Amino acid sequence: MSVTLADVAARAGVSAATVSRVLNGNYPVAGSTRSRVLRAVDELEYVVNGPASALAAATSDLVGVLVNDIADPFFGVMASAIQSQIGPAGDHDAEAPHGQKMAIICNTGGSPERELTYLTLLLRQRAAAVVLTGGTVEDPDHLGALATRLRRLEAGGTRVVLCGRQPLTAATDGAAPGGAHGPVPGPEEDPGPAPVALTFDNFGGARRLTGHLLDLGHRRIGYLAGPAARTTTRQRLDGHRAALAAAGAAGGEAGTPEAERLTVHGGYDRASGYDGALELLRREPGLTAVVAANDTVALGACAALRERALRIPEDISVAGFDDLPFAIDAAPALTTVRIPLHEAGARAGRLALGREEAPAGRTATLPADLMVRASTAPPRP
Amino acid sequence: MSVTLADVAARAGVSAATVSRVLNGNYPVAGSTRSRVLRAVDELEYVVNGPASALAAATSDLVGVLVNDIADPFFGVMASAIQSQIGPAGDHDAEAPHGQKMAIICNTGGSPERELTYLTLLLRQRAAAVVLTGGTVEDPDHLGALATRLRRLEAGGTRVVLCGRQPLTAATDGAAPGGAHGPVPGPEEDPGPAPVALTFDNFGGARRLTGHLLDLGHRRIGYLAGPAARTTTRQRLDGHRAALAAAGAAGGEAGTPEAERLTVHGGYDRASGYDGALELLRREPGLTAVVAANDTVALGACAALRERALRIPEDISVAGFDDLPFAIDAAPALTTVRIPLHEAGARAGRLALGREEAPAGRTATLPADLMVRASTAPPRP
DNA sequence: CGTCCTGTAGAAAGCGCTTACTAACCGCGC
DNA sequence: GCGCGGTTAGTAAGCGCTTTCTACAGGACG
Hints:
The structure is a homodimer.
Chain A: H1 5-12, H2 16-24, H3 31-44, H4 50-57, E1 62-67, H5 73-86, E2 102-107, H6 112-124, E3 129-133, H7 140-155, E4 159-163, E5 196-200, H8 202-216, E6 221-225, H9 231-247, H10 257-261, E7 263-265, H11 270-283, E8 289-292, H12 295-307, E9 317-319, E10 336-338, H13 341-353, E11 363-366, E12 369-371
Parallel strand pairs in A: 1-2, 1-3, 3-4, 4-5, 5-11, 6-7, 6-8, 8-9
Antiparallel strand pairs in A: 10-12
The structure holds a DNA duplex.
């Protein structure tokens, strides 16, 4: 510590400016000078003072990544992919090049307030970019506050990328399958260009998944939804109901008692699946299938059903969503919908760094493919 | 952006110094002045310039967290717990208090080089603290470089905490069950105080786990080890062999052909478990139990065994390690060893912030409790 | 009534770096 | 021999904040 640019300069017999230029490589420096400086840097084990250079250059090497829950592999996988694009690349060299970015992963716990707090903190750090992952609360107040923060970030030169989330207010648009909306202005104020967004086809995936169950012959299908008023939850639920409605099956029409009865809202955790499955069974003992908001919930549901001595899939089918790594290893292997988390994260990371062109319309929707495995089968006659 | 302290000062009719003092609350300011300043801050939507204040105050709000693989719940859970102590607390308020810390989660991918790179980057940022999670490579060169980096960090005022890792060179000490070593000086140079460390009782947990299988009557037990030359891998393997040796069972003596034959090294991922189980079966068709380096590997092994038409636990027992959330939902529920990841992370976070006293001897070993579930049973006669 | 605290606020000197702007030097053509 | 572009290096002015030191009230006190 306390070895400064000036020390290096003195040792190399040049001015501080020259050292800075060698290190940043953004100005012609004679070869001999350059190597003299580099040697001094090495001998003194000089490490730049990040804050100082961020202040002087008015840019920082920090990239913020907001996630709901880093302990959840859904976010873990995305975060890992994002970081793989941002952090140090190969392992060939322990030296950290100048201008090397670092990701700050912020755990919001799904709390809108904390999300805003983190955005303020990132603004304070003058982050180079911010990636918001996963769905969000559909509360207009929150969305408004969010839009304001993001606008301020962008005004300050921070690149904003949404990964797995609708472009802001478009989130309240109902369940549009395609998802490719244009920018929608927030309340008052100039919206500026909408942040670039990568969204998942939750609606389409859910519709195909429930369609698969309907094709197998299921008609009494329970749904374990995630927390209410969140975009991801609603898109998946809407897809599910759209499939039911198209087949004229029970629960297809939102708001009807039938639909309410076959839907239980909970969290995205295992316990919600466990409790929710029991509740569904209580409400509708004749259930032949359960669709969960995600794989974790599905696993919890499986546990509950097994305790009730129901065999999967002989007595009851179960399906998840996301295709997290453990889905294929469940017994029986879980039928689910694959979300390209890794691809999405990697692409978001590149977009955040400006290393990839923004998609046309500033929004791209990634596919959600049905993965049929062993946890779903035709209902018993 | 571009609203500076001076702007706020002008608006409030005070000097910049006063505004700084109000914001930092570390100097007496008259109530009336204080509220005038706060109003100005509010009206101007002023946000401190983090780099500038870090430079002037020579401290930063950044805390580095190094993990091997953030997509792995083992690290995800710890990272989440660490952050819960460091990041914004309640959701009562969207305002970010001054001095609010942020965690930078760095994904090393298990690469020693990348670990060093990140440490340099953190040094550059003048991080307030650094938490290194999980085991490490046992290569003396790497350990030396690591010790040097950590010493430099500590010299610069960065607090260093190890979470789930032996205090540096103690890592090469053989499999000491207690783990409470004193500081061991690195090669040359003054060691200074060893970083505070929270370690897991991998050895003891593994020994109890294998002991459980032996008690059930198993004698031909295969072991799916993690990557060679990593502390966690070796401690668990050593514990396993210690239990075997104590019972006089096959494979208890390291280095013997028997021990080698019953051990397969791989990664900590699902595929390694799958491949490894098949390999074990090939080497020893009479296997009655498989112990895996962690739960993820165990799940992969289960998949492979099931494909070979072996029933768990009737035909073959399987055990994991860590007790990750999904272990209890495996079918059958996985017998494993519970590692208090959340508690460890939370405590490490508090230690990093200096909000908790370092344990006596600067090292505390956390218990690893055996969780007997349904995937283990007596072998068939 | 002058002095000495105590409580508040301002002036100003950096923190370590970047980056115009300026200066020196070189070889060149006229 | 002199002025001139082209290189390469140095000078110095900040970047926006913290913090020491100084200044100035207004009581309390002798």
